[in-house]
Amino acid sequence: xxxxxxxxxxxxxxGKTPTSGTEYLSRNPADLADVVAAVRLGPAEDLxxxxxxxxxxxxEWAQVPxxxxxxxxxxxxxxxxxxxxxxxxxxxxxxxxxxxEALGEVQEIVDxxxxxxxxxxxxxxQTVPSEMPDKQLFTFRVPVGVAAIITAGNFPVAVPSWYLVxxxxxxxxxxxxxxxxxxxxxxxxxxxxxxxxxxxxxxxLVITDGPSTFxxxxxxxxxxxxxxxxxxxxxxxxxxIGELCGRHLQSPCLELGGKNPMVIxxxxxxxxxxxxxxxxxxxxxxxxxxxxxxxxxxxxxxxxFTRRFDAAVRAATVGEPHGPILYGPLLDQKFADSxxxxxxxxQPHHTVLGSTATGRITAENPRAGFxxxxxxxxxxxxxxxxxxxxxxxxxxxxxxxxxxxxxxxRDFEQAVELANKPGYGLSSAIYTTDPTKAFxxxxxxxxxxxxxxxxxxxxxxxxxxxxxxxxxxxxxxxxIWVLDQFTRxxxxxxxxxxxxxxxxxxxxxxxxxxxxxxxxxxxxx
Length: 525
Known about the structure:
Layout: E1 8-9, E2 22-28, E3 31-41, H1 44-62, H2 66-82, H3 84-95, H4 99-119, E4 127-129, E5 135-143, E6 146-150, H5 158-169, E7 173-177, H6 183-196, E8 203-205, H7 210-222, E9 228-232, H8 235-247, E10 253-255, E11 260-264, H9 270-282, E12 292-298, H10 299-315, H11 333-343, E13 351-353, E14 383-386, H12 393-396, E15 403-409, H13 412-420, E16 424-425, E17 427-431, H14 435-444, E18 449-452, E19 468-469, H15 483-486, E20 487-495
Parallel strand pairs: 1-3, 6-7, 6-9, 7-8, 9-10, 11-12, 11-17, 12-15, 14-15, 17-18
Antiparallel strand pairs: 2-3, 4-5, 5-20, 13-14, 16-19
Helix pairs in contact: 1-7, 2-4, 2-6, 3-4, 3-6, 4-5, 9-10
C-alpha cells in the first residue's frame, strides 16, 4: 500500500519530529481497509530524550504563576470544544467507538479543563500555628517535576486529559506515550494543547511500542529524568511498572483493569437492572476498565432477570459506529485475538445466551439485526454466560470484550463475598430498593467506586476515579484528589524571634493541678 498520501504521525519532542523509527499502520477497526495514519514508532531513546528536554523546560514552566497556567488550561478547553466534532469523528474512525460515545469522551476533556482552570487559583497551602512564640509554619504544594504518562487507547483522549491537565496545571512537564493504535487521536489532542499555549518542551509526545516504552522508562528513571509515572492499562503491565518505579522509590499512579461486579437483590427493579447491565457490560464492546464482569443475582429473581437480560442483548443493535448501535468493533486486531482466546474459557457447564452465535460476526456467522457490513471490521457477537462458578477463569479474570457472566447467590453476605473474590477493586454496582443493602454493600465492597442503581461505568470529571487490589495502587484521578499525584507537600517554618527555638524542647508548658477534686457537698452529699 502506498502510504505517502496518508496522514503521518510520529513523536514530537521540543516541537521537532525524530526521523528514525519503524512504520505501523493505524487502521479503522470498523473497516480494516481504511488506514487512518502511517505511524512512526520510535526507539526507547525517544522517551529518554523527551524526558531530558522536559527536565529543562519544567523549571521555567513551574515559575509561570499558577493562575496563568490555569488560563492555558482554559484555552485548551475552549479549543477542544471548538474542535469537538472533528476530534470525535477521528476517535470513532481510529478505534471504532460509537460516535455518540466519542462526543461524550471529548466533552469529558472540556469538563476536566473547566474544573481545573479554577484550581490554578486554588492550589492552597496552609498557615499552621506553631508551638512556640514568634514562629510561623506554612505548607505549600510544589510540582513533582517531570511526569511520564502512558495511556491505553480505549479512551484515547479523555483518560489522557485526566493526567495531562492537572499535571500541567500544577507546574509539571509531561512526556506522554499514547497507545500506538490510537496515535492519530493522541497527536490531534497534543496539537490542541500546544496551540492552547503549552510550551513545546513542557509536553512531549512519544510514539513507540510497549517494549520500547518500558526500556525508555527504565533508562529515564535510572538517569533521574522522571519524577512521576502515570499508567493506564492492564494489571499485568501495571505490576511491572510498579516494580520498576519501586526500585527508584517512586509511587506511580496506576489505573489498571477490572472485574467489576453488579449485585442484583431480590427487591431490585429488574427493568432498571437490565438497562444498567446492558450498558455496563456491552457499551464500548465491553472494552472499558469499568465494564461489567459478572452479574451476581439473587436466586429468587435470577431466572426472570436472565430472561429479560437475554432478550435485551439479543435485541440490541451491533454494528457500524456511526449508526444507532449499542457497540461497534473491537479496538484493534490484538484485542480481537485476545478476546477470541477468552471465548475458550466457556465451559460445558455454562449456558451461552445473548446472540445467535459467538465469535466474529461475518456473513457466515451472522448477527440478527447487524447494522452495516459485518465482514469489513472487527465485530463480535455479544455473549452472556449463565451458570458461572466462583472458580471459573471467566469469573476471576478480566475479559475486555462483549461478554458478561451470571452467577446466583442466596444471602447478602455470599453476594459480597463473590463480588470481592476476583481480587480486583475498581468499580461495582448494586441494584436494590433497600437503603440498608445499599449502604452495607458500600461498606463491605473492596472497590474504589460504587454505584447504586446505576452502571459500573460512567465517570464524572470532579469525582475521584481509581481502584484497589489488582485494579490499582490506591491512587486516584480526577477532581481535587488527583492533585496529590502531581504535587508534593513542602513545609516551611519561619522563626522571627531572633533566637534559636528548638522544637519539643523550648516549648512553654502550663502545669495543671491534676490532684484537684470537686467538693463532694456540691453533689448533695
